[in-house]
Fold:
Amino acid sequence: MLILTSFRRLGAADEVAAAAAKQGCFVTVLEMAERVIARCVPSMIGVRIASWHRAAGVLLRLGCAVRRVKPEAHCLRIVARVRQPRKHYKRFET
Structure:
């Protein structure tokens, strides 16, 4: 299992997620924004990139802020908070 905490820019995180999913790893991305790479590209491109990752088996948790990471016996527990989408923001789903 692999958990990534953001897709803020094109590059490392999304490539790691895609490569790990291709190798059969269960991949989850916890993204604080309401869509992937929201700061870098227009929403329709972000929607396309999100659909590619979902098709590859990557689980995207949007609007999810990591609060803390706690080490436990044989794992790390990630505590996150899910934000409600803003009313004026149109959420695109694929």
About this structure: The mean pLDDT is 79. The domain at 2-82 is CATH 3.50.50.60 (FAD/NAD(P)-binding domain).
